[in-house]
Amino acid sequence: MKPGTSWLVKGGNTLSGTLAPSGSKNAALPILAATLLTDQPVTLHRCPDIRDVKAMINLIRNLGADAVEGSDPHSVTITASNIDPESLSDELSRTIRASILLAGPLLARAGSVQLPPPGGDVIGRRRLDTHFLALEMLGAKVSFNGKLIKIEAPNGLTGTEIHLDEPSVTATENVLMAASVAKGTTVIYNAACEPNVQDLAVMLNAMGADIQGEGTNRITVHGKGKLLNGTTHTICPDHIEIGSFIGLAACCHGRVEIPGVPQNIIRPTMIGLGRLGVEVFYENDVLVVPANQDLKVRPDRSGDIPTIYDSPWPGFSPDLTSTAVVVATQSTGTSLIFEKMFESRMFFVDKLAAMGAALVLCDPHRVVVSGPSKLVGTEVSSPDIRAGMALLTAALCATGESVIHNVHQIERGYENIVQRLNNLGADIKPLDNMGQDK
Q1: Which of these is catalytic: 39, 52, 72, 121?
Q2: How many CB atoms lie within 10 A of CB 5?
Q3: I want to staple 140 with a disulfide (CB 3.0 to 4.6 A). Which of 1, 61, 153, 309 is the partner?
Q4: Does 200 reside within a domain?
């Protein structure tokens, strides 16, 4: 599907059936970067077949590594026996924010790296200082050469105590990768705990690293002072995709079954969606979103309007606040959705207002929603991955037809989403650039 493609969505259908989760996008990207820490083959399974993952694989190829896809489109074997950091493509690096994840592995492998500012979603200020400060503590020097970020470690990397100034997921991942091959022990305080961080640590340990404490905010890495070994690893399921599907299923009233979902990654999701009346249960190790849920906002014990807010893991994920807003439009009652991290993420709610949602954007971080609202199809454009999925959810539960433009943003994070949802009973058709059905 070409980047300029739009979708025609006919709303109002009940969605039901089985929806298998993809591998985690946010785990696959650092794990792909970590393949540069060895000159031996690394085989990855359950790689999501999405734009951002393909861009990262192309970046790794661009560095000189071999990347051979298996007969299964979700498997790839990468052998980084010879890499040249100077061949890193500026153009490719600017396409995804995850290009910053190459900093730690390339610094550890080659002693220096030059990167352009990374690309990705425009959802507010996304600072990189945490990465730079942490790498400097390991012995690197960071400078800006024109529009390039230059990071050097002429004397190598040495383990130390690092207190991250914020629990940044990608900064934690960069430190984990760099510290695994540094000399000595690194202790990371205020580390991110997300499932994708834990999955990276699992793979690095399988490669011969010595990481302890993943899943907590204090991680210890006993550096090996040398390259790691090859391995085979299966990427964990995508908890953000699963959370998006739970919200979508609840809004579209059908029974949706999601197999292979670990219970520990669902509890934080239900912190937020549960306050909006969404219910799930497990049946024979399958996560079930029951049909015809009576969505009602659960007020505070005092009767006050509840606040659904994001926080670092194991709190409610900021990547699911967009979905929470749409679910709130279909829940009886009033709620305040408070997205603390990104000051532009909530700007998509004007599109929901145009569809008939009763809401007030209080400021760049907070929106008050009163429901339920009968949404009506309209023409919208996807501003980023998560807002795009939220708008698709709104279009599917609305009356009438919607046209969603800029859908390549959604495809960056959700694999083969049109076919998967159509298999549940959705009616989504690609349009060409002239607005005609394909």
Answers
A1: 121
A2: 18
A3: 153
A4: yes
Annotate 183-237 with DSSP letters as a single string.
EEEEEEES----HHHHHHHHHHHHTT--EE-TTSSEEEEEEESS----EEEEPPB
Beta strands in 225-295 (DSSP E): 231-234, 256-259, 281-283, 286-289
307 occurs within a structural domain: yes
DSSP code for 274: G
Q: How many domains does the chain have?
A: 2
The encoded tokens of residue 417 equal: 């989403």
* Contact between 48 and 286 (Cβ < 8 Å): no
Same domain, 74 and 217: yes
Asked if 250 and 171 sit in the same domain, the reply is: no
What does each C-alpha distance from 127 to 46, 89, 185, 346, 416 come to in angstroms?
30, 22, 27, 19, 31
Q: Are 402 and 13 in contact (CB under 8 A)?
A: no
* 151 to 119, 131, 135: CA distances (angstroms): 18, 11, 9
Determine whether 121 is an active site residue.
Answer: yes
97 sits in the region (left: phi over 0; alpha: psi -120 to 50; else beta) called alpha
Say yes or no: 214 and 292 in one domain.
Answer: no
Whole-number Å distance between alpha carbons of 59 and 68: 14
- Asked, as a colleague might, if the bond just before 383 is cis with ω within 30 of 0, I would say no
**Has this prediction a pTM greater than 0.85?**
yes
The verdict on 223 and 310 lying in the same domain is no
Report pLDDT for 122.
40
Q: Are residue 184 and residue 269 in the same domain, yes or no?
A: no
Which of 234, 250, 276 represents a domain boundary (last residue)? 234
Same domain, 269 and 216: no
Residues 61 and 148 in one domain: yes
**DSSP 3-state assignment of 134?**
helix
Model pLDDT for residues 28-61, shown as the tens digit of each residue: 999 999 999 999 999 999 999 998 899 899 999 9
- The parent domain of residue 195 ranges over 25-234
- Of the candidates 191, 218, 234, which is a domain's last residue? 234
The length of the chain, given as a count of residues: 438
| pLDDT tens-digit readout, 373-398 | 999 999 999 988 999 999 999 999 99
Amino acid at 128: L
With respect to residue 436, please indicate whether it lies within any of the assigned structural domains: no
